[in-house]
Each structure stands twice: as C-alpha cells, then as structure tokens.
Amino acid sequence: MKISEVPQERGIMPQDLHEVCYAVDEGGNYVLVPSAGWDPKNVANHQAWEIIQAQVADVLGDIYAGRLSPLAFHMAVNQMNIPLLSKYVRMNRWRVKRHLKPDVFKRLKSDRLKQYAEVFGITVEQLLKVPPDLTHGVKEIFNPCR
Amino acid sequence: MQIDFKHRLSAHCESGVSSNLLFHYGVDISEAMAFGIGAGLFFGYLPFIRINQLPLTTFRCEVGGILKGLTRKLGVKMHFEKFRNPQKAMAALDRSLESGTPVGCRTGAYWLPYFPSAYRFHFNMHNLVVYGKEGDDYLISDPVFPETQRCSQEDLVKSRFAQGALAPKGTMYYLTHVPKDIDLREPIYKGIQTVCRRMLKIPGPIIGVRGIRFLAGQVEKWPRKLGKRKASLYLGQLVRMQEELGTGGAGFRFMYAAFLQEAAGILNQNRLLDLSAKMTQAGDLWRSFAVIGARTCKDRATESDSSGAMADILRDCARKESEIYQELLAVVKMRRHGQ
Fold first, then answer.
1. Which residues from chain A sit within 8 angstroms of residue B287, using beta carbons?
2. Comparing C-alpha atoms, which of B239, B243, B274 is closest to residue B260?
3. pLDDT tens digit string along A8-63?
4. Contact across the interface for B116 and A14, Cβ inside 8 Å
5. Residues 6 or more apart from B74 whose CB is under 8 A from it?
6. Residue B308 lies in a domain
7. Is residue B85 part of a domain?
8. Chain A within 8 Å of B294 (Cβ-Cβ)?
9. pLDDT 10s digits, B146-160
10. Does residue B19 form part of some domain?
11. B315 and B211 share one domain
C-alpha cells in the first residue's frame, strides 16, 4: 500500500479520531500514515451492528407481546447473552433466565434490580423502562454508529 | 501523581504497549520491530471458536504472546500478575504507580468509556498502559488513540475484570529489569524463525499457510453450504478480523513488511528488503480480498466477484506467503552457518 492509497473514508470513526496504517513512500520506505477509515471496514462493522440491532428489535417485539421482561432489552443492547450476563451479576444462569420472564421480573426486590442496573451502568428506573414503540425503527432507539 | 511517560500512537495495542514500555526504559524500539521480534505474525482459521456465532480467524499469535516473546528474546524481565479480587488488583496497580512504574493492563474494550460507541464490542484482549492517577481518574496511554485518555476507577475495574471469552482477570504487567546494551540482531533472527516455523510447519490444516488454503476452500463453499445471507455474515466477520482497528492493514502483513525493512538495515541483509517488498504485495492481495468481500456483503458484487474469485485471491496469498517464509528461513539458516 502506497501513501496515496491509504484510505480516508470516514464511516464509523468519530471526527476527532484517526488510526494509523503502514504504507510505503516514494522511496519504498515504510512510514506510519493516519487513516480516517476504509469502506470495506465500514461495511463489515455496519453489518455487525445490524445483527445486534435486529436482535434488539426482536427482543422488543417479545417484550411488547409480554413474552420477555425489560431485562432482555438491556441485555441485548449491551450485546450480552445469558451466560455472559450471569457472570457479570454473579448469579446462576437459570436464575438470570428466570428473570427474563415478565412476571418474575416484576416481583424482583430492589437490591436484585440494583445489581443488574450497576452492571449496565444505568439507574433502576431506567432498568424498568423500555422504549415505548418501534414505529421509527430500531435505529432510532439503538444506533452506536451515529 | 503522574509518571513521565511518552505516549506514541501505534497501529496495534499489544505491540504498541510493548514498544512504549520499552521506550520508557530507554530502549528505542519501533512498534513494527516489537511485533517482529515478538513473532506476532500468524494465521489461523478456527471455526470451532465462535465470536457472535461466527467463526474466528486470527492473523496474530495468542494474546500476550508478542510481549512474552519480545521480553524473553531481549533479556528483559517482566512481572506478570493475574487477580481474583478486584480490590487487590487495583491496590497492586496503585502501588506500582506510586513507585513510579508504568503498568500495562489487559482490559475489555467494551467498558472503556473513551472508546467510541461504534467500537464498543465485547473484546477482552485490549492492552493499554496506566501511567498515573489524579483523584479518582487513572491516566491512560492507549496506543491506538492519538491522545492520552482518562478513565474513572469504576470503569477501569469493570474493564480489567471483563467477563466472557478470554477474560483478562485483572492481568497486569510491568518491566522489572532492562539490560543496558541490547543487541537486536540475534532476537530478530529468532523472531523471524519462530514466525516461519509457525506458518510452515505446524501440523494440521487450519494453521499457517495451509490454513489460508483451507480458508480459501471454505470461502468457496460458504454460499452453497450456508446460503447467501449467512455466507455474507461470515465474510463480513472475516473482513473485520483482517482489517479492524489494530492490524495496521491487511491482517498485520504491512506491519511485518515494515519490520523486515527495518531488520534489513540492522542486519545489513539486502535480501530482507526484497522479501519486505514481497510481503507488501501479499498484503495488497489481502486488501483486494477485503474489497471484494465487502462488496459481496453489501450485495453490490459485480460479475467477476464470485466466491471462486475470492478463493483464488486467498490461494495467491498462500502461495506468495509460503515463498516468503521459505526464503526467510533460508536467510536465517545462512546466518547459522556463519556466512
């Protein structure tokens, strides 16, 4: 890759940041060159986020239908599954799984809720809430690439 | 409290941390040199390890391997510690900082507040250097960021004790002894030898040059085996592994070419210059693979962008790299015979 070929295609990288690439100058010597991003990378990253966004949308649908508790939404937004979340809250998997049931979740004591809220870095009130509807699409609710 | 630590931006976290830590102790060693001596270059297609349910492809050696290889070959002594208890882990970090020692930490990128949200995935192999503390904030030299960063105690604890695959378990390390005069020549030869042996001689189909060929066959099969949608996900993951923040481009191939070029100067070996240029060509091939891969993911593939074409590029990469490693081994061997 020559210096002139180092891509500057800003996609998911914020304005004030850049990364460095190794590229060769006219004399064939390697130098470090700043890069703002590259389209193939941006495509691949967007794809990765779209998978997570699709999961969030699925989970929200299930929550509205009363099949899952709000905990499932926060779990999906934090890219976690039951095994990972159970490690963070230091509970058994089956217990976390049970808390995904709306009826069980409703009856949870406040210290249990606090445990979950702390892991997600939110307040207990935020933990109990989910976005009201999906009419504007999941990207309005959860889009880290903005 | 703040240690006078020089922060240098680099392409990859572990080799950047290695090079910056050594620089602090007066050993001026570039990131590429650290990567080369630490024998960081690798290839492995490991479909049985899943990340987000997609197979893992790695272009570098195991986590911590660069640092270990580098310090061992240079005769640098390093203290390396894991913890169970977060309080103890933070207390040990504070003690080292008090005594004026910059400390490397392995962390989970997801919990680092200064990471842009679009890069916050559960990735537990991120290395950084802590070089000071102000109130409740730690001062952090993260080699993949242009400027130094700050991180609250709470976030750093979370990050050092991130859970999931390859959990860091509070891993921290610092250098305890750095020899006065370091001769890079022998470590360079050893580093090259390690990489070549790994790429050519590890048995089994999924590692090294054979691994690249195996991947080529898989890429060809994916659309038929998995269907279009899933094949595109597999490809996207592959492109991310190859190019994502930290490889310096083309799955570390460009960084290794830079190392070979620098090594040619130090060893006075012009053959290494040619091999560096060849490695650059291999890197360019990998890049062209990523271009087609991304086009396929986006459903903008042209007539000639078939999975067969992609597999052919990978086979080209394998052939080219195999030649490079064989010639590199010959260079190392010649030296052994005292020529």
1. 1
2. B274
3. 988 888 888 888 999 999 988 999 999 988 888 889 888 889 889 999 999 999 99
4. yes
5. B22, B27, B37, B179, B182, B184, B187
6. yes
7. yes
8. yes
9. 999 999 999 999 999
10. yes
11. yes
